[in-house]
Design goal:
By secondary structure, the chain is of the alpha/beta class. It is built from nine helices and eight strands.
Length: 263
C-alpha cells in the first residue's frame, strides 16, 4: 500500500503535530512499563511488557485524557476515595484489560462501582481512555504499571470490593509456570486488601491454568468458592465477551470462570 495523501488544512495539520509533540513529551516511549523502577526484584510480576503499535488516535487519547483518568503505579500510597472524587464508590481492581472494550462496558453497566483497570499495553490504554471519554465513565480509572506494586505498596487494608483477572497469560510451558499471576504469593498480597464479601473473579480459556487457579484459590485462607459443588462458575452475564475469549473459543478451548468471595 502506498503512502496516504493528507487533504487536511494547514491548521489541522499544525494541531495534529502539536498533539503528537505533546504526547511525545509526556510519554516519549509510551507510559513507562515499570513506573516504580522495580525490574531488579526477583518476584512475580503482573505483566509481560507489551508495547505494540500505537495509533495516532490512541496516542491522542493518552495525551488528552491521562490527567483525568490515568494513574501511574509508582509505589506512592493511593487514596481511592480521592481518586474517584470523594464519591465513596466501592472499588474493583481489574488486572490486564487488553484493549479495554469489556472493561468500558462493565463500567458503563455499573456506574455505582469504581473500576481501577491496570495494564501496561500502551495501545490498550489509549483505546480505553478514548472509550471512557466517549461514554463519560466517571467511575473508571486507567492505571499504568505493575499491579504487584499497587498491591504491595499503594493500597490500605480492606480497600477493595473486588478483583478481576480475565484471560491472563497462561504461560503454557512448564518451565514458565512460575510466571503465572494466580499463585499463592499473589493471593497473599491480595487477601488483606479485600473487604469481607469482596468478589475475586478469574477467567481463562487454558484448561491446565484453570485447574491451577482452582487449586490455588481453594487453598487461599479467607476465600470461599461461590460454586463449591462444581468448582467452576457458570459464565456470568455481566462479563462481556472479550477478544481473547472469542479467539479461545474459535480454537475449541473451554472457557472457565472462577468466582470466590472474601469471608
Amino acid at each position: 500500500m502506498g503512502p496516504t495523501v493528507s487533504t487536511s488544512s494547514p491548521a489541522a495539520l499544525a494541531s495534529a503535530a502539536a498533539s503528537a509533540t505533546a504526547s511525545a513529551a509526556r510519554f516519549p516511549d509510551g507510559p513507562a512499563a515499570d513506573p516504580a523502577g522495580s525490574r531488579g526484584e526477583h518476584r512475580i510480576r503482573s505483566f509481560h511488557a507489551r508495547r505494540g503499535r500505537i495509533t495516532q488516535a490512541q496516542a491522542a487519547a493518552i495525551d488528552r485524557h491521562w490527567e483525568t483518568w490515568g494513574v501511574e503505579l509508582d509505589g506512592s500510597p493511593l487514596d481511592l476515595a480521592a481518586l474517584y472524587g470523594g464519591a465513596g464508590l466501592p472499588v474493583v481492581l481489574e488486572i490486564g484489560f487488553g484493549m479495554g472494550d469489556a472493561t468500558a462496558a462493565m463500567a458503563a453497566a455499573d456506574p455505582g462501582t469504581g473500576i481501577l483497570a491496570v495494564d501496561v499495553h500502551t495501545p490498550g490504554q489509549g483505546n480505553l481512555l478514548a472509550l471512557a471519554d466517549r461514554a463519560g465513565l466517571r467511575n473508571l480509572r486507567v492505571a499504568n504499571g505493575d499491579a504487584i506494586v499497587l498491591l504491595r505498596d499503594m493500597l490500605p487494608p480492606a480497600s477493595l470490593s473486588g478483583l478481576r483477572v480475565y484471560f491472563p497469560d497462561p504461560w503454557p510451558k512448564a518451565k514458565h509456570h512460575k510466571r503465572r499471576l494466580i499463585q499463592p504469593s499473589f493471593l497473599a498480597l491480595v487477601a488483606p486488601l479485600l473487604r469481607p464479601g469482596a468478589v475475586v473473579h478469574c477467567a481463562t480459556d487454558w484448561e491446565p491454568y484453570a485447574e491451577q487457579m482452582l487449586d490455588v484459590l481453594s487453598a487461599a485462607p479467607k476465600l470461599a468458592n461461590a460454586y463449591p459443588a462444581t468448582g467452576f462458575a457458570p459464565r456470568p452475564d455481566f462479563r462481556p465477551m472479550t477478544k481473547f475469549e472469542r479467539q479461545g473459543l474459535a480454537k475449541g478451548h473451554v472457557v472457565r470462570d472462577l468466582i470466590f468471595t472474601r469471608v
